[in-house]
Amino acid sequence: MASPVANPGAGAAPAPAPWTPFVVSVAPNGAKRGKADHPALPVTADEVAEAAARCHAAGAALLHLHVRDRDGGHLLDADAYRAATAAVRARVGDGLIVQVTTEAVGIYTPDQQMAVVRDLRPEAATVAIRELVPDAAAEAAAGDFFAWMHRQRVMAQYILYSADDLAWFRDLRRRGVVPGARVSVLFVLGRYTRGQVSTPADLVPFLADPGDGSETWSMCAFGPREGACALAAAALGGHARVGFENNMALNDGTPAPDNAALVAQAAAGAAALGRPLADAAAARDLWAAA
Questions:
Q1: Ramachandran region, residue 65 (left: φ > 0; alpha: ψ -120 to 50; beta: rest)
Q2: CB 62 within 8 A of CB 242
Q3: Angle formed at CA 240 by CA 52 and CA 69, multiple of 5 degrees
Q4: Is 117 helix (H, G, I), strand (E, B) or coil?
Q5: Pick from 47, 113, 247, 253: most CB atoms within 10 A?
Q6: CATH code, domain with 236
């Protein structure tokens, strides 16, 4: 009697869902570092535009933009943002999402943070929940601002520093303070303290409760394990922000020559996993307000 022919499909595991393209964002300067920290750290609008072009060529889809005052200090100013954005657009066109920061750095009030975005109407902006909604008393003003961003199609990325921040953010969403059927969040792995070194394990508290699937998450990390954290994010379905704002070292601990090298490192990690890289158009589709 002939042996039965095995069905190669019987009991086979289902094929994995296709990867969502991996968005690499770059934060090339931040609020506090300068040329003394690294000669290739961009400060002026022209320097930021040059770094943006190099990072775009290396695989970045989004530029996280900080601008500085005449003394090199942190600045929230709509005209300065317009000038820097125009310089970037002259180099890369629409090839990068330009995302401005509203970071306070102990200088600006929530009203000032929100006012600069209302004046500028940028394509995208980061907003820290801790800064704009520290308590229930701030909910009404922040909620009005978030609703305005949503109506104006300003892509908001909500910055979260801990699992407690994430729980507070989800409560705000449930109560309608944060609008949108889907949202973008940035998990900050660690703190802005001297010597901070983030590790991939710092993602665990944020991912312990996966939520309802309506959050698109990215992460940023501090120190020379930034690349390892970006790789972990890529493997786990998230996205990554890299750059001199938080780290100036490659995976082997040697100094990165420029921001583009950190972008290229993150892109190579995603490629090693078989995850495709997102361009700006794909990132816009992923993060557009809904």
A1: beta
A2: no
A3: 45
A4: helix
A5: 247
A6: 3.20.20.70
C-alpha–C-alpha distance, residues 210 and 219, integer Å:
15
Strands (E), 11-132: 24-26, 62-65, 67-68, 74-75, 97-100, 124-128
Domain residues for 248?
A: 24-287
Give the pLDDT band of residue 289 (cuts 50, 70, 90): low
Residue 283 counted as domain residue: yes
C-alpha span between 162 and 188 (Å, rounded): 7
Best CA proximity match to 242, nearest among 230, 258, 228? 230
- To which residue do tokens 């095995």 refer? 6
Q: Is residue 3 part of a domain?
A: no
The predicted structure's pLDDT at residue 177: 97
Question: What digits encode the pLDDT tens for the residues 107-165?
Answer: 999 999 999 999 999 999 999 999 999 999 999 999 999 999 999 999 999 999 999 99
pLDDT tens for 32-74 read 999 999 999 999 999 999 999 999 999 999 999 999 999 999 9
Separation CA 137–CA 197 (nearest Å): 34
d(CA 224, CA 247): 6
- In sequence order, which residues have a C-beta less than 8 Å from that of residue 8 and are 6 or more positions away? none
How far is the C-alpha of 133 from the C-alpha of 192, rounded, in Å?
20
- The label of the residue with tokens 């601002």 reads 145
Distance CA 110, CA 145 (A): 10
Total domain count for the chain?
1
CA 268 to CA 275: how far, in whole Å?
Answer: 10
Distances 234 to 9, 26, 55, 277 between C-alpha atoms, Å: 29, 15, 18, 10
- Type of residue numbered 178: V
- b/e sequence 236-274, b meaning 16+ C-beta within 10 Å: eebbbbbbbbbbbbbbeeeebebbbbbbbbbbebbeeee
Q: 């978030």: which residue's tokens?
A: 146
